[in-house]
Design brief:
Elements: H1 3-13, H2 17-33, E1 39-43, H3 49-56, E2 61-66, H4 69-78, E3 83-86, E4 99-105, H5 113-123, E5 124-135, H6 143-148, H7 156-163, E6 168-176, H8 181-189, H9 209-228, E7 236-243
Parallel strand pairs: 1-2, 1-4, 2-3, 4-5
Antiparallel strand pairs: 5-7, 6-7
Helix pairs in contact: 2-9
Length: 244
């Protein structure tokens, strides 16, 4: 991703409904899973907003890692309580069995997902939690995926096929951003895409304050549903796992 796109996404992530809704959902599911609060790692921490959430949840030690030095520059400002490392997901520079909770949001679709998940499993203690989020459905592939540097998209089933052989028991999977699936498909997969112009990695940041507020409310309603039952469709997939 270009530095300009990283900067723009970092500026938006602090109050943009898309990012905040995802963090709220992850926080909800970590709490539901009863994760040990001694140490958390965010692999692919980006601008660091999840790191600060994890620290606020009471994790005694929080570590963020990202392959982008530009992203880590933003993370230093947004997550002052976290230790930061520059590293790729396929080579986590941490000792085995040393982490209680590992998160990795919108990361493994960019890299060798099998190698990355094996590394995540290695550093998490038996019984520890791994939370993964990825974009959904190969049929939703568009120029936006190219701009973001994606290699693939997933279903709940195909994600399980990556997670389980690595030694993770999938406790729960759900789709999310379900109410956006049809509008997004129309924009990305029909002639309506011409109205959007050239795809960019930061397209999701372009919303008005009123739309941002409305979408945030819709995301809260969706999260209440997810609390009780997994959703059968959506723009993204979330998996909550335990290391065997």
């Amino acid at each position: 991703m270009k530095d300009a796109d990283i900067d723009r996404l970092a500026a938006a992530a602090g109050d943009h409904w898309w990012y905040q809704a995802k963090l709220d959902l992850v926080e909800q599911e970590i709490t539901r899973a009863g994760a040990d609060r001694r140490r958390a790692v965010d692999a692919g921490c980006g601008s660091g907003h999840l790191l600060e959430r994890l620290a606020g949840m009471g994790f005694a030690s929080v570590v963020g890692m990202d392959a982008s030095g530009r992203a880590l520059t933003h993370a230093r400002g947004n997550a002052p309580r976290a230790a930061l490392l520059r590293a790729a997901a396929e080579q986590v520079p941490l000792a085995s069995d040393t982490t209680m909770c590992l998160t990795s949001l919108d990361v493994i679709e960019h890299c060798d997902d099998v190698a990355a998940v094996r590394e995540y499993t290695r550093v998490v203690r038996p019984g520890g939690i791994v939370v993964i989020a990825v974009p959904a459905y190969e049929w939703m592939w568009s120029d936006h995926d190219v701009a973001l540097g994606h290699r693939r998209r997933y279903t709940r089933s195909s994600l399980r096929h990556v997670l389980e052989p690595a030694g993770l028991d999938v406790v729960r999977t759900t789709y999310f951003h379900s109410w956006l699936l049809v509008p997004a498909a129309l924009i990305r997969k029909t002639p309506l895409r011409r109205l959007q112009g050239e795809a960019s990695a930061s397209e999701m940041s372009d919303v008005s304050p009123a739309v941002n507020k409305l979408f945030g409310r819709l995301a809260r309603l969706e999260r209440r549903v997810v609390r009780h039952v997994p959703l059968p469709f959506g723009l993204s997939v979330l998996a909550i796992c335990r290391r065997r």
